[in-house]
Amino acid sequence: MSTVEPNHTAGSPPKSKWLLPAFWMLAGITFYLGATQIKTAIVQDKHDPGPAAICLLCSVALILLSATQAVQLLLVRRTPAVPKPTEGPDVTRQNAGPRSTTRSLQQALLGVAVIGVYIYGVSQIGFGLASFAFGITSMKCFGVSWRHTLLATTACVATVYLVFIKLLGILLPTGRWDLPY
Asked: Is residue 2 classed as helix, strand or coil in its secondary structure?
């Protein structure tokens, strides 16, 4: 008996592994096409790259990173199928394959939902409070201790405050109630 999945040969990665690089490649191409549609301002400094620059950079990064991931899948070493052990500590871990995939999908969807709530929170309660709540929520989801969570989140929010508001003079969203930060 072997651990080879159905419709999967022993020497190649499973077909489902190609979904992620294909998704990011499609997203990168879509974002690139969208970024090329952004018009530049009539009055603009000749050294200013324009509003489309960051969109173009991010889309090119998505395309390059998804291509890198696809190449890594192509270069996976071809290994023979290993017989499935009948006893030992690794048996439960190997049997949890589909369950761990479902768990990973749930965590990914939860992460997307938390980011959506964060974006909405920035407009409602301001950048500082929304970032603090997002930092605590996301770090606790990763299983970080309370002490490290509070320390890292406070340090990040304070650093952003000092750099962007105090040093650079950039105003960040204050929310519906115009909180000072």
From this structure: strand
Q: And the tokens for 67?
A: 């291509």
- DSSP lists the bridge partners of residue 2 as 83
Tokens (6 digits) for 120:
């909405």
Distance CA(47)–CA(170), nearest Å, equals 20
Contacts of 24 (CB under 8 A, 6+ apart): 62, 65, 66, 69
Note the pLDDT tens digit of each residue in 62-74. Answer: 999 999 988 988 8
Say how far apart CA 160 and CA 165 lie, in whole Å: 8
User: What is d(CA 60, CA 140) in angstroms, rounded to the nearest whole number?
Assistant: 32
pTM: 0.48
Q: Would the pLDDT of 176 be above 60?
A: yes
The first and second tokens of residue 174, run together, are: 């204050």
In the block, residue with structure tokens 């990665």: 13
User: Among all chains, which residue has been given the structure tokens 């989140």?
Assistant: 153
The three-class DSSP label of residue 82 is coil
